[in-house]
Write a structure and sequence with these properties.
By secondary structure, the chain is an all-alpha fold. The protein is built from seven helices and two strands. A hairpin with a 6-residue loop joins strand 1 and strand 2. Helix 1 runs antiparallel to helix 3 (about 60-75), helix 1 packs antiparallel against helix 6 and helix 4 (about 80-100) packs antiparallel against helix 6. The relative contact order is 0.12.
Length: about 170
């Protein structure tokens, strides 16, 4: 007679307890540091480390997104649904892509607040593991389509700009 053992998952699901709340709190703190640490005087806007790092040419946006992946790692540790992880990844991708545009990208980071969005997604999914994900799929498909369209427009603009500059330099 074969013994029947319950199968165990290689990753243990965290119960709704102090450990789970601790990981959610870490995500919230990181999001605040990256997106809303300091109020801009005379406005209702807050900025964090993300747009400030974005001012460092070349590596600033990469550093901000690397820090942002910590929240994504916490979501993985909490075993959130893959579609939520996809949404979080897309938020980082959008912030990193648009954030790479000098000045305008930093202003976009102040508005978009990808880290705060990801912390909210993490909290919602971690507290409601039975959450419906159909809306998430439509969101992801829409974001991918919009991102591709935006990238194509940016490429077209750069090509147009190079042609205009070339014609001015060449005396045309």
């Amino acid at each position: 007679m074969a013994s029947h053992r319950p199968s165990t998952s290689p990753i243990e699901v965290l119960p709704r307890d102090e450990a789970r709340e601790h990981l959610i709190a870490i995500a919230d703190i990181l999001a605040k540091v990256m997106d809303t640490t300091v109020r801009i005087p005379g406005t209702s806007w807050y900025i964090g480390l993300d747009p400030l790092l974005g001012l460092i040419p070349g590596i600033g946006d990469v550093l901000a997104n690397l820090i942002g992946t910590i929240i994504l790692g916490l979501a993985t540790r909490l075993q959130l649904p893959r579609i939520v992880l996809a949404r979080m990844s897309l938020n980082l991708l959008i912030n990193g892509t648009v954030g790479a545009v000098p000045i305008a990208g930093d202003l976009f980071s102040i508005w978009f607040r990808s880290h705060t969005r990801n912390a909210v997604l993490l909290r919602e999914a971690a507290m409601k593991p039975d959450r419906e994900t159909h809306t998430d799929w439509f969101y992801v498909i829409g974001i991918i389509g919009g991102t591709v369209a935006l990238l194509l427009l940016m490429i077209a603009f750069v090509v147009w700009l190079v042609i205009k500059v070339w014609s001015m330099v060449a005396g045309g």
